[in-house]
Amino acid sequence: MQVSHPTKSTVLTAAVIVAALGYFVDIYDLILFSIVRVKSLNDLGIIDKAAVTDRGLFLINMQMGGMLLGGILWGILGDKKGRLSVLFGSILLYSLANIANGFVQTIDQYAWLRLIAGIGLAGELGAGITLVSESLPKEKRGYGTMIVATVGVSGAMLGYWVGEKLGWRNAYFVGGGLGLALLLLRVSVFESGMFQQVQAQAEVSRGNFLSLFTHPVRLGKYLRVLLIGVPLWFVVGILVTLAPEFGRALGLTGEVTAGLAVFWCYFGLVFGDFISGALSQVWHSRNKALQVFLVFCATLVAVYLFGIKGASPAVFYGVCFVLGVSVGFWALFVTVAAEQFGTNLRATVATTAPNFARGAVVGLVPAFKYLSGALGFVPGAAVLGGLSLLVAFWAVSTLPESYGKDLDYVEE
Questions:
Q1: How much is the pLDDT for 195?
Q2: Which of 159, 313, 337, 386 is geometrically suited to a Cys-Cys bond with 254, CB 3.0 to 4.6 A?
Q3: How many CB atoms lie within 10 A of CB 41?
């Protein structure tokens, strides 16, 4: 098997290119349901607005539940079998699931296929970021993950365009086809040299997920890493996915669609991921960049919920764009997760952390339902968002700085 070792060469390596394109397809498929939620449910006979919201949240929970399961599965496999096996195995699974999604006729079929797609979607980003982090020199790996994120999140914009122009069923077919086409690039990618060295050491335990919970220092770091990513999925899973419902609650002057809200949010994410990654390199600090973006995000959540009542849809979409910029720290968050742990647990952490953060939607949805029922739609969202942001800021502030850290070591 071909092996890669960190060198002083260009940042734009085959591993970076394939990881970026893989994340592009990953985001396309991950966000596609939010874009086509209303149209697909209407076509399946769900017309009532309250039922569309309820069934939509159920399907989101199925997808995110699959990501929770997949995060553990692919993370362990990434440390036991290699980063490449996960990178492409996950792409194959979610591609086939999304092609099948284009044929669904019932809500139950839709739900089970979103679960399977969620399991597949769980593996790509963590494996890609781990491979890139281990394949580039420590001074450049932040730029590599920045490229992965910037290219990847633009997949949501393609998802919106395809969903609008070709219909929701064809949008699923396109996503599956893109994933299968990406598999052809596997031959150009090398396995991580760090992983190969650890694999040769029979005495080193690899991919032991439970070991994250048996050592207090490791457990503390792991839980804090998980908490950093929750605000992004509060924004995407609640504020943006339920854009039509928030538009009505805010008294906007016209109807807004979830698809267009997702488009503008992820357009902002392209810029946010580029800026946050670049700042972490310029400042030589991952933590400082994350803290700045969390404060920025808190400000924009407040604007979204309390600053645009009675505004036009154009203003609403503009706020979604800037809100997207403010949560553009996703790849930086996954990079920090990868940098906090040794080679024998790195893929496990880098894969489970983003999926547990994404899967937090499973807990955020019932929490939002409860709070919105008790306090009101907008105040309930404000309380939930405020709590997630405060906890994430604390988590960042207490994590060890990982910029420039040597990753060639194992966890005991």
A1: 66
A2: 313
A3: 22
Q: How many CB atoms lie within 10 A of CB 398?
A: 11
Q: Could you tell me if residue 307 is inside a domain?
A: yes
The alpha carbon torsion through 4, 6, 9, 12 (nearest 10 deg) reads 70
Q: How far apart are CA 303 and CA 27, in angstroms?
A: 26
Per-residue CA distances from 9 to 5, 14, 135, 149 (Å): 11, 12, 10, 20
The whole-number pLDDT of residue 82 equals 79
DSSP string covering 149-162, please?
HHHHHTHHHHHHHH
CA distance linking residue 328 with residue 155, whole number of Å = 14
- For residue range 211-239, what is the model confidence (pLDDT) as tens digits? 888 889 899 999 999 999 999 989 988 99
Token output for 260: 């267009």
* Chain segment 79-100, per-residue pLDDT in tens: 888 777 887 888 889 899 999 9
Residue 117 within a domain: yes
pTM metric for this prediction: 0.82
Q: Which residues pair with 3 in a beta bridge?
A: 191
